[in-house]
Amino acid sequence: MQNKASRTAQQVALFRALETARGHDRVFDDPLAVRFLGGGYRLLARAARVRPVGLRLSRFIDSRWPGPRPSAVARTRLIDDLVGEALAGGARQVLLLGAGYDSRAYRLPGIDRVAVFEADHPATQAVKRRLIRGAVRPERRRHVHFVPVDLLVEDLGEALLRNGFAALEPTVVVWEGVTNYLTAPAVDATLRRIADLTATGSRLILTYVDRRVLDGAIDAGPWPEAVRRQGEPWTFGFDPARLGGYLAERGMRLALDMSTREAADRYLEPLGRHEEAATFYRVAAAEIQ
């Protein structure tokens, strides 16, 4: 990615802020999301606190760019639940890999009892650290360690160990919204390093794009072109049918592979929210063997 704060990270923060503003039928509460937004996006998020305005804004976004907003909402809640399960199962540290404007380190119950490592591109992370200093009291962020790293050119393991990451400890790794911007060698190297660095039974949660979107076999609508025009094109995807075998070759067992459409069916539909998340954008969870 270019040497600048990620535009797509800002947009996902906007989607989380809009979801938080919904009130009674929201599926998560992310009060920090609005703090990560710049000028125009922040104004939109604040206006969305008036429920009719927020609902109209979400409908407008979905009509112009079908898929990204409900997909981000559904994947956020699913990953929240998976991280909570891992913490309850004994994970002693959390690695947010390509953390963007993820605020799980400050909002998930019990996460402050373990060490959290946020690894991200230096440009995006520099902006986030400045915003966090202004939004989160020091005592609420003592458990968080920032690790600036560019996965395209730097070794993840070396960067983590330099910043206090404990090798071979039970860990839950969240790799959300990143793999589709990397190269195949970078994804391969990162997965192998995760398997080497973490204890047996550790958990990896990642998102990915179905490879057939990149090949043109699946029509993903305007979403791929929109991110390309922003300078952050999708460059990598997995074949869902082959993901289990791919992970097994790297010392991991696939435990879950769910589209964001399926996640929306789980979390949004019971609330009467019929929102079209993407079938090609997926969340996978694996266990380190």
TrEMBL record:
Could you name the domain of life of the organism this protein comes from? Bacteria
E.C. no: 2.1.1.-
Q: Coiled-coil ranges per the record?
A: none
What Pfam families does its record include? LCM
Protein purpose: Exhibits S-adenosyl-L-methionine-dependent methyltransferase activity.
Q: Which organism is it from?
A: Paractinoplanes toevensis
Family per UniProt?
Belongs to the UPF0677 family.
Q: Which GO terms describe its biological process?
A: methylation
GO MF terms, alphabetically ordered: methyltransferase activity
The protein in question is named S-adenosyl-L-methionine-dependent methyltransferase
Alphabetized InterPro entries for the sequence: Ppm1/Ppm2/Tcmp, SAM-dependent_MTases_sf, SAM_mthyl_Trfase_ML2640-like
Task: Print the keywords alphabetically.
Answer: Methyltransferase, S-adenosyl-L-methionine, Transferase
